[in-house]
Structure formats: structure tokens, C-alpha cells
Specification:
The protein has 421 residues and is α+β, with helices and mostly antiparallel strands. The protein has helices at 9-20, 36-51, 96-111, 138-143, 161-167, 196-199, 239-257, 296-317, 337-350, 365-368, 395-420; strands at residues 55-58, 64-68, 77-83, 119-125, 155-156, 159-160, 183-191, 205-211, 213-222, 264-274, 284-293, 320-321, 325-329, 333-334, 354-359, 374-379. It has two domains: 9-211 and 333-420, Zn peptidases (Aminopeptidase, 3-Layer(aba) Sandwich), CATH 3.40.630.10; 213-329, 2-Layer Sandwich (Alpha-Beta Plaits). 35% of the residues lie in helices and 23% in strands. The two termini are 39 Å apart. Zn(2+) 2 binds at residues 94, 129, 387.
Length: 421
């Protein structure tokens, strides 16, 4: 379908290609937070912000912000953005597309001589991906006063996080006092990082209803070490056999729950065996489950099932299984209901077919949503691949998403004005 979009697809492609070129040699597309290449990428982004007429600054949390002042002082801030850092060996579009599209929205407004009543801020959030300090979403947590103070002393490679934030222009000494009551609404565009939209021939845009909560659960299975050659098969207390069955059962339980309304997934991503010797019956297995749920009750039900199931497995396999321990437990973050409707109207304005869906991955939007109305949209990516050198999204799809954000910003400027009148 040919569409007359309010944004310039060529400028979007040019910026994404330019950022893709800033990568470690032989490692597409590696530009990790706090590295010299990251700062080089930021310099490019800042230059594009300024060329779009934006006033640039680095806030206390190390976020790069481009501001377009609104016509009415004190009306509030409409914020768009994502992140420009990558994981190692992957991330040509992950985050980058959202930053570039946000800049393009600002350019498109200027092209049309449109003046908003609200301030518009474009943000490149610092270190959304897991950084060299082992933590993520540093910029969005820091902007909103949600960065744990203890994180600032996390150290690696001879420096701590506080020093690293200062090196990119932030002010770690005042991070705990950060507060942004001026944010009237936040929107983020991102590639889906999954195959749903690409496989859905009926829809172009995913309107994200919630970012799934993430619960990580450790389970320890203990058996008895014995000689692998002399111990009869029916006389063993094999921790690995019981753990292997548990992994399969977790997979099947998650698959069944995933067929009900609301996103749900559970993965055993860490698995350690002791003594890990070929001629010894395994005596201990430690496994870590990564569970993700759009609906909190689904996670609670899964945990209840797991507590009961390990008791049955322990009896069946003659092992000991400690009660599953929740190592971390974050609740789902729903999108703002009003902004979901705004995005649906914007899709209809530009002729983008759309569907509601949850995000199984975490994003900066989840932290902004804790202090202000926030929502996000997905555009398709090839085969759902992400965090990989093969990550790809079609520029036409990204441009369509940019057009949706443009219309949503126009809508927000009017509707938020009415609410505040």
C-alpha cells in the first residue's frame, strides 16, 4: 500500500546506517555503553539533534536529551526516545531505531512549521542494555530517581559506575534527587524482537499493552554422588535426571500457560552440575528459571505449581529439592490506557493496521511508566531475530512507525492541553 507519510524515510535510513557504521571492527553491531565508540555514536546523534533545531544537554543520569521548546511555558513535556547502546555483536536496530525515529518526528514537525504547546524532548537513554557493570536501564532509572544508590559503587575495569556516568557527562552526586514531574507522556518505538508481527499478515504495528514482569527462580536439586560404572541404575539418586525432568516439565507448563490470554514464558537459562565428571553420578544441580508474565496472577499461579511439583519430583526420583527461591521478582508494567487509545487513533490516521500485544523484553519505557503516562509501539523485525548480527527491520516499517508517533504527538499535544485547561 502506498502511503503519504508525514516523515522522511530516507533520513531515517541514513541515520540508522550511519550509526551501524560506528562499530567494533569485525563485530557488527557492537557499540556498548561507556565505550569510546558509544561516545562517537552519541556525538553523531547530538549533531543530528542540533541539525533538527533541538537544544541538547546531558542530564544527571547521563542521558542525551534534545529539547524543542513549546509555545506555552509550564505546559509539560512530551517525551520520545530509546537507547543507542548495543549488546555485543548485535543491535543494528534495537534501540537505535527508536532514537532515530524520535529525531525524525522533531524534524517532521519543523518541516511543517508546526509549533506544539508542550515541550518536546528526544532522549537517548544511557545503558539500556546490560552494561559492563552488570546492570541495565541506567539512564531511565536515573532520570526518574529509581537507580539504587548501591549501584554507583559497582566496579569493573578499574572504575565504578559513578565515575563512568560522570565520564559521559552525567552528575552521579545528585542522582538520588532526580525527579521529572513535568513529563506529560512518553512514547517509545522499538523493533518487536519477536516473530509475531512478521507472521501476522493483517497488522503492521504492535501497540504494547504491558511490559512483562520478570521473575527469576533458583532451584537446587541434591542427590548422591556414586560411581557411574558400578552403581546399579535402580539404586541411584541422580540429581541430573530429576533436574532434566524438571526442565521439561517447566517448558511444558509454560507452553500451556502461554496459550491463554496474556504473554507468558519460562526458560531455564542457567544450569550447573556437580561434580560434573563423566564417571560420577551427579550429586547436585542448580538451575535458574527466567519467567516472564504480562498478567501477575499467571506468575503467581506458575510459582504455586512449581512449589508443589518439585515435591512430587523429589519423591519420584529419590532426591532432595529445596523450595524454589525467587532471586528477583519484578511486576508487569502496564502501558497508560489513554496513550494506548492515542496510538490506536494515530495508526488509523496513517492507515497502519495494528494489534495490541505485550512485550516479553524489558525497555526504558517500563521505568518512565512508574512516574508518568507511557506506552510504546513495535515494528516488525525479520524472523523475530534480535541481539544478533542478523537483526534486521525494513525501513518502510520503521518509517510507518515514525508516522504513527508523529500523529500521536500531535494528538497528545491537543488532548493533554484539554486535560490541563
Amino acid at each position: 500500500m502506498t502511503r503519504n507519510l508525514p516523515v522522511n524515510a530516507g533520513r531515517i535510513a541514513e541515520d540508522i546506517d550511519a550509526l551501524a557504521g560506528i562499530t567494533e571492527p569485525g563485530r557488527p553491531w557492537t557499540r556498548r555503553a561507556f565505550s569510546p565508540l558509544f561516545l562517537e555514536g552519541r556525538a553523531y546523534i547530538e549533531a543530528r539533534m542540533r541539525a533538527a533545531g533541538l537544544e541538547t544537554r546531558i542530564d544527571a543520569a547521563g542521558n542525551l536529551i534534545g529539547k524543542r521548546r513549546g509555545a506555552i511555558d509550564g505546559r509539560g513535556t512530551i517525551m520520545l526516545g530509546s537507547h543507542s547502546d548495543t549488546v555485543p555483536d548485535g543491535g543494528r536496530f534495537d534501540g537505535i531505531a527508536g532514537v532515530v525515529v524520535a529525531i525524525e518526528v522533531a524534524r517532521a514537525l519543523s518541516d511543517r512549521g508546526i509549533e506544539l504547546d508542550h515541550d518536546l524532548e528526544i532522549v537517548d537513554f544511557l545503558a539500556e542494555e546490560v552494561s559492563i557493570f552488570g546492570v541495565s536501564c541506567i539512564g531511565s532509572r536515573g532520570m526518574t530517581g529509581q537507580l539504587p544508590e548501591a549501584w554507583l559503587s559497582r566496579a569493573t575495569e578499574g572504575r565504578d559506575l559513578a565515575v563512568a556516568i560522570a565520564e559521559v557527562g552525567g552528575r552521579p552526586g545528585v542522582l538520588q534527587q532526580q525527579n521529572r514531574p513535568d513529563i506529560s507522556g512518553f512514547l517509545e518505538l522499538h523493533i518487536e524482537q519477536g516473530p509475531v508481527l512478521e507472521n501476522d499478515e493483517k497488522n503492521d504495528i504492535g501497540i504494547v499493552t504491558a511490559i512483562a514482569g520478570i521473575t527469576r527462580i533458583e532451584i537446587i536439586v541434591e542427590g548422591r554422588a556414586d560411581h557411574a560404572g558400578t552403581t546399579p541404575m535402580d539404586s541411584r539418586s541422580d540429581a541430573l535426571v530429576a533436574a532434566a525432568q524438571l526442565v521439561l516439565d517447566i517448558r511444558n507448563a509454560a507452553a500451556a500457560r502461554g496459550k491463554t490470554p496474556g504473554h507468558f514464558a519460562a526458560t531455564v537459562g542457567e544450569f550447573r552440575i556437580e561434580p560434573n565428571a563423566a564417571n560420577v553420578v551427579p550429586s547436585k544441580v542448580v538451575l535458574l528459571i527466567d519467567g516472564r508474565a504480562e498478567i501477575r496472577n499467571d506468575m503467581e499461579a506458575f510459582c504455586e505449581w512449581l512449589d508443589e511439583h518439585v515435591i512430587k519430583l523429589a519423591i519420584a526420583y529419590g532426591v532432595s529439592i529445596k523450595s524454589p527461591m525467587r532471586v528477583s521478582d519484578n511486576y508487569p508494567t502496564p502501558s497508560d490506557a489513554g496513550l494506548l487509545k492515542t496510538l490506536e487513533r494515530a495508526c488509523e490516521t496513517v492507515g497502519a493496521r495494528h494489534r495490541r500485544m505485550a512485550s516479553g523484553a524489558g525497555h526504558d519505557m517500563a521505568w518512565i511508566a512508574k512516574v508518568a503516562p507511557a506506552a510504546m509501539i513495535f515494528v516488525p523485525c525479520k524472523e523475530g531475530r534480535s541481539h544478533s548480527a542478523d537483526e534486521w527491520a525494513e525501513n518502510d516499517d520503521i518509517a510507518l512507525g515514525a508516522a504513527v508517533l508523529f500523529e500521536a504527538v500531535m494528538d497528545m499535544d491537543k488532548s493533554l492541553k484539554q486535560e490541563n485547561a
